[in-house]
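@channel sequence for tomorrow's demo:
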Amino acid sequence: MVPSPDREPTFLPLTVAATEQAALRAGEDPAALALSRRAEAADSAAAGCWLALVAGCDSGRQAVLDAVRALTEEASGRAGDLCGAVPRRRLVEAELRVDEAVREADGAEFAEALADYDQAAATVVVHVSNRLGNLSR
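structure tokens (generated this afternoon):
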């Protein structure tokens, strides 16, 4: 039986929603669409890693690290000078915490780290989206 999308675990709901909204606001902007795809890929990889951690498997760990790193790079690159150093630093610190939890195979720490990462990434995305929206007026 195919799992219902409504029942799929999600670990980056704020970031996915923020990137989707930013992509809608930006129209066909390739950078906004790329960021949204990165967020969805990171969320999917996180769900796969979570299942592997719960099952005691090693699979999926590197995939989530790669996906989160790519999302951080994409968000930071898009932020450029539009977002202060504090939100970007917080995002990098949250990424490091995810990395540590994955390497330690600590499911509870993984979930907490991703919640922190989600909030940090969404903050950067919303801040940049708002700044870009204000600059285009």
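heads up for whoever presents: Residues 107-135 form the longest helix (29 residues).
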